[in-house]
Specification:
16 strands, glycerol-3-phosphate 2-O-acyltransferase activity, 20 helices, alpha/beta
Amino acid sequence: MDYRCSGTIANCVTRNRQTNSVVSDFEGALLHRKNAFSYFMLVAFEASGILRFALLLLSWPVYAVLYYFISEAAGLRVLIFVALVGLRVSEIESAGRAVLPKFYMEDLNCETWRVFSSFGRRVVVTSSPRVMVESFLKRHVQAEEVIGTEIEVNRFGRATGFVKVPGVLLGLHKRFAVKALFGDATPTVGLGREIPVERSFMALCQESYVVPANQRKDTTDDVLPKPPPVIFHDGRLVRRPTPLSALLILIYIPLGMFLAIFRILAGFLLPIWAIHHTSPYLGGKIIVNGEQPQASSRSNAGRPGVLYVCTHRTLLDPVILSIILKRRIPAVTYSISRLSELLSPIPTVRLTRQRERDAANIRSLLQRGDLVVCPEGTTCREPFLLRFSSLFAELSDQIVPVAMDYRVSLFYGSTARGWKGMDPFFFFMNPRPEYRVTFLKQIPHRLTCSAGKSPHEVANYVQRLLARTLGFECTGLTRREKYSILAGNDGTVSSSSSRWLGLFTHRAQN
C-alpha cells in the first residue's frame, strides 16, 4: 500500500465519521505521556504492597537504560516482570479498574480523544498489558476494542512475569495485530505519536495523523470536550509516583506511620474540647465557616436533638464535627472496621440497612441528644455528591446541613478494596491534612416533612444545598454503584458501560 501521512491531528476532519473506523496508539497519543513506568508503580503498590513498590523502584535504572538506549521492548519486559510476577490476574484487573483510571484521565490528551470519539468503530493499540488498560479504555474512553500486550498466566491464575507471543506490542507487532483484527478491511484513520513508517500500524490506514511529540497538557485542555469524569476510584496514593516522588514516599512512610500513631493516640487520650486547639501543633488544619449551632437543651422535655447531615468524604467526618463543637456527638455508620470503632473518640452506632429497624434506632438516639448522619452512605473522593438516602428526613425536623471537604497530599484516607481499619492511619500519615467545614443554617420548618414535604424532596433539597456550598455536582449514584465498580461486590453493574457513566449527570428532582 502506498502510504502517505495526512498531517498532524489538527488536520483530521471529525464530521460525519460515524461509519468510519479509527485506530489510535494509547501511550503518546491518547495519553500525553509515552513512558508507562509510573502506572506500573501504581499497580505494584496497590496490588502487591510497599515491598514490590520498592523493588520496582530499584529496577528503574535498569529499565531506563534498556528503554531509552537499547530496546523499548526490553525495558517494558523488565517492568512487566518485576511489577506483575506472582500477582493474581484478578488483582491486576482490579487495579486497572479501580486505581489507574484516575491517573490515566489526568494524563488524557483531550484533543486526541475529541478526534477518536467522533468515529463509529474505535480501536486502541497499546504496548502495556491489556489487562491493565482495558477497563479504562472501554469504560471511560469508549473504545470498542483494545489490542495490547498479553501476559502469560499459570494454572493458578497468577502472572508469570513473561509475555505471550509475539511479545511486547511495538512496531511491526502492532501492525500485524491491527491487520489480524481488520482482516481485508482497511482502517479509515490512524492516530499516533511519531511519523509513521513501513513498520507502523498507521501505514495500514487510509488516513494517518500524527500527535506532535511536543504537544503537552496545557490550558487548552480545559476548553476541549472531555469524556465522562472518573467519579469513583480507589488506591492510597494521591499523586502519580515518578521515580523521584516514589523514593520520597519510601523515605517518608516510616516517619508518616509514627506521625499517624502519635496523632491518633493524641485524639484518643485528649479531652474532646482540647483537640481543636492542639491540632495545629500536630500538623493538622481545620478551617471552619458559618455559625456553629449550640448544643440541644436537655430542659426541653421530649424535644429531640439536632440532626447534623454531613457530606461524606472520609471516615473522620463525624469526628471532625465533634472536635469543632467540642462535644462527643454520636454518629451512625453502615460499615466501619472494629479497629476504627475501638480508636474512635466518639460513640458510633452501626445501622443494619433494614429501614424500619434503623429508623427506630435513629429516633431513639435523637431522643437522647444530637446525632450525626452521612446520608450518602459511603465516601466519594471527587467533587460529586452521591444520592442522599431520605431516611433522615423522616425522623427529624431539626436538620442542620454541614458541608465537609478535605485535602491531603500523599495518601487517601478511604478505601473500597483494602482494609478499612487502615483508613485513619493513612489519613494521618499525610504531612499536613486539612479539613474544611461549613455550617449552614437549620432547614426552615416549611421545607421539612412536618410541613408536608416528602422525604425525597427534603433529601434532594439538602443534597443540592450542600453541593452548591462546596461547588460539587449532584448525582444519582449510590453506594451500590461505587462498590460494584471498585470492588466487584454488593451488586453488579450493567454490561452497558454507559449505564453508570450517564448517572453522573442526573440531577435530584425538584
